[in-house]
Design a protein that fits this description.
Length: 284
């Protein structure tokens, strides 16, 4: 029984100078099955990393006294890169097989950084990502977005429980009609991935329209969701993931009927071109 209680989904370090935020994240993450270590500033965070070689993720406040979040992250990543192991002392003497086994046990798992910031300024968020962060969450913290992001970063992505279908569909985002059309690259009954030429902040609620999906379902499809993940792929290209909100069970059933039967979903003109090429080849 005791051994079962010790099993967790992984260990996370929370670094924030606000006790309220630390306690909130500690409560939510423990309830979700994670082991949590707390630090109230950058210097204490560095100590906790040395003491816990099995850390997998750091949730790091951007604005802190003494050392801000970006400074802490750069110092940690540089230190880990040079050291290579969590508790190693850098000695280069020959080691016995037993010592090598112990060293392998002490090797630090890939350490990911998730910034936590009260600001939703896209420029600051982009700077944090460019500095080396893997993701970010904004304050006030949305619990559902928080847990989906953490599960993703910790390799516990629940979306993998559902059939996921690759797509190549032109879409419009109702809240950004003045922008150029975007593209849907992935669809399941709980989420979608899209590529846009513009940034959409996490937590934004958007509605995706697709002519192809309207034709397929024979009704107007309004895929409403909240953005949970944004990644900059290039100067004017972003990968956005949204989790659907307000879909009825009938809606999910319709989507499931497509994602479980089709290998891929493309726009009509692309499918017709592919069929035409196939017919030409058969005639030849």
């Amino acid at each position: 029984m005791a051994e079962e209680e010790k099993k967790t989904k992984g260990k996370i370090l929370v670094v924030d100078d606000s006790e309220d935020i630390r306690m909130l994240l500690n409560l939510k993450l423990k309830k979700a099955g994670y082991e949590v270590v707390l630090a109230n500033d950058g210097m204490q965070a560095l100590e906790k990393v040395d003491e816990n070689p099995d850390l997998q993720l750091i949730i790091l406040d951007v604005m802190m006294p003494v050392m801000n979040g970006v400074q802490v992250m750069k110092y940690l990543l540089d230190k880990i890169d040079k050291k290579g192991v969590g508790n190693g002392d850098g000695e280069s003497e020959e080691k016995s097989g037993k010592e090598e086994d112990e060293e392998q046990k002490n090797e630090r798992p890939p350490l990911k950084i998730c910034f936590c910031t009260a600001k939703t300024d896209p420029k600051q968020i982009n700077l944090a990502i460019q500095a080396g962060a893997h993701d970010y969450i904004t304050k006030p913290i949305d619990e559902s977005i928080l847990l989906q992001k953490i599960d993703r970063l910790m390799g516990q992505d629940n979306a993998q429980m559902f059939a996921i279908m690759p797509c190549d569909l032109e879409i419009t985002i109702r809240e950004h009609l003045k922008e150029k059309p975007s593209k849907m690259t992935e669809l399941s009954e709980v989420h979608a991935k899209i590529e846009t030429g513009f940034f959409i902040p996490d937590g934004s609620e958007i509605t995706v329209d697709s002519t192809k999906l309207n034709e397929l379902f024979k009704v107007e499809v309004n895929l409403k969701g909240a953005v949970i993940f944004s990644e900059k792929l290039g100067p004017d290209l972003y990968s956005i993931e949204l989790t659907f909100q307000g879909l009825t069970e009938d809606d999910r059933t319709e989507i499931r009927s497509v994602t479980t039967t089709k290998r891929e979903l493309k726009d009509l003109d692309e499918e017709e071109e592919g069929e035409g090429e196939g017919e030409e080849a058969s005639e030849g």
